[in-house]
Amino acid sequence: MKGILWLFAISLLMLVVVLAFTLGTRLVPHDSPPEVIKTFFSACNSGNYSLAGSLLVPEANRVLTRHIGAVDGGLRAICDEETKQGHLQRVEVLQQEVHGELAQVHYMLHYADGSTMEGSQGLVLKRWGWKIAP
Length: 134
Prior knowledge:
With 134 residues, the chain is α+β, with helices and mostly antiparallel strands. Helix content is 51%, strand content 28%. β2 and β3 (116-126) form a beta hairpin.
């Protein structure tokens, strides 16, 4: 009987270790601030507004979907404007600055018509990774 309890205790301990490792690695932010910016614009360009919204801090997403931002077209309108209705060809990261849990990414948007637009965006490190902050 003691052998079975001992085996059960070891199995339970191993399970806890595996779960802790799995959860621990999922909480570590895997995307860098430039990758979040590139993913955001790519999602906007392809019309994947749910992905684009998931990259915003929750407060900004809430304002865009429920408050005055929704009256002005919300995230979809912002995405369409920034990508010229899906004509964005690439995002070039010019510079990134990271200071603890805050980051600033300077980028250049390149469009199909040959035009470009420079921009800068702040990000904040949340539990689940980097999020775009207004």
